[in-house]
Amino acid sequence: xxxxxxxxxxxxxxxxxxxxxxxxxxxxxxxxxxxxxxxxxxxxxxxxxxxxxxxxxxxxxxxxxxxxxxxxxxxxxxxxxxxxxxxxxxxxxxxxxxxxxxxxxxxxxxxxxxxxxxxxxxxxxxxxxxxxxxxxxxxxxxxxxxxxxxxxxxxxxxxxxxxxxxxxxxxxxxxxxxxxxxxxxxxxxxxxxxxxxxxxxxxxxxxxxxxxxxxxxxxxx
Length: 221
Hints:
Blueprint: E1 7-12, H1 16-27, E2 32-38, H2 41-51, E3 55-58, H3 67-77, E4 82-87, H4 92-100, E5 105-108, H5 112-124, E6 129-130, H6 132-143, H7 157-167, H8 172-179, H9 183-197, H10 202-211
Parallel strand pairs: 1-2, 1-3, 3-4, 4-5, 5-6
């Protein structure tokens, strides 16, 4: 019997230790070959075009274009690529949005060791793979009335990126430089965010961003 060609995998996560852990898990699978790593969204899209992997294992919270932006643009960069989201977020909003944006699978990091190999095998064979928590979130999103959708859904993709940057404590100039936009545009986005969320302080915006999973909570010291 002819051996199956190893699945060529690109890892995209902004935490080097997380990428190292995922790589260690994958290197134990003879049917998988890790061909590259990306630490932010722009690098992920660039490597997709250069390496043309079979599968992208993608975190959702990354700088320089988040995982949702990568999901939207990935198949233009690498037609035919399968995408497995690997994240810490199990909320209805995250799961349903990732699926809408084109994720072939959705797996939580705390079950990656047990489930990653099965998830990769499933999505590369053309079958979706969702962890049990993600399945429950998708079922709940179908039952949830539209008017109860998250406030986060009111924001555009760029507004979510600006919100995350504001919550991380970046200045207007730093945000403008990161996204290659003017400071006036940053202020326009900030005003729109506050209006749509009905939040009037940076402190409350930061709390909201942490609660919605846009940024990591500060470490406990």
